[in-house]
Amino acid sequence: MKSENQPEANFDPLLPTALKHQQLEFTAYIRDPDNNSAPAEIEDRRMAIYRELFYNNIEGFISGNFPVIRKLFDDAQWHKLVRGFYSNYRGQTPLFPEIPQEFISYLEQVNPCPDKPFLRELAHYEWIELALEIDSTTIDNEKINPDGDLIQGVPVLSPQAWLLSYHWPVDKISPQQQPTTTPEQPTFILVHRDSEYSVNFTRLNQVSARLLELLGSSKDLSGNECLEKISQELGRQGDPLIFDTGKNLLQNFRQQQIILGTTVP
């Protein structure tokens, strides 16, 4: 995918000029048949095979990875959106699994749907499941005590537990619910992959999100120290309710394999 109709290419300097020109004509037409002519030497029946095959592959891949977004558009609107991405965006990867990231970049850079200001965040929310499914980060279990004390010890957050923050309520968007005004409060989502490679999504409140944020950014804070910091931030230092709630959260996170245990001294 290129942003110009006639892109520059690193062709073999020994390649005949006529063949270079034909290849440029071919690729420009495949990307944007409405604004480029097909090579005169190739019959339309054959060009149609390539034209439809290339586009259908990209369209099918995008619609499969962004099912909620697909439902927000009728067929004409959807193909206009995908065709704009396919025809005009300068992609940086030849790998199919990375195409969703390119689509997100396109939405961010071009903003093709200003009437749907939440679209880029929704695309990221839908893509994150694939990203976590293929994440290859390893876990050094020898440095983790799975039964460690989560209050006195230093809890270990799973590398497959990702805390996300969005301006828009991405988990509630549907064809019937498409917000146009940014809510006052952000939406916190925890997405995590368990040992069975099942990816789960959980909406969090501000306190649980802050606890996970501290666990992920501070590798030497005990569970108790994290809860003390949260109570101070809330202006409720020493409040037993904060600590009781926090202890339950830590235990629940361990049961869900969001927390793997505590660091081994």
Write the layout of secondary structure elements.
Elements: H1 17-31, H2 44-65, H3 67-71, H4 75-88, H5 99-110, H6 119-133, E1 144-145, E2 155-157, E3 161-166, E4 187-193, E5 199-204, H7 206-217, H8 223-233, H9 240-255, E6 259-263
Antiparallel strand pairs: 1-6, 2-6, 3-4, 4-5
Can you tell me about this structure?
- The protein has 2 domains: 97 residues, DNA polymerase, domain 1 (Orthogonal Bundle); 123 residues, Outer Surface Protein A, domain 3, CATH 3.90.930.50.
- Helix content is 46%, strand content 11%.
- The protein is built from 9 helices and 6 strands, in the order ααααααβββββαααβ.
- The chain has a 3-stranded antiparallel β-sheet with strand order 1-6-2.
- Helix 5 runs antiparallel to helix 6, helix 7 packs across helix 8 and helix 8 packs across helix 9.
- The termini are far apart.
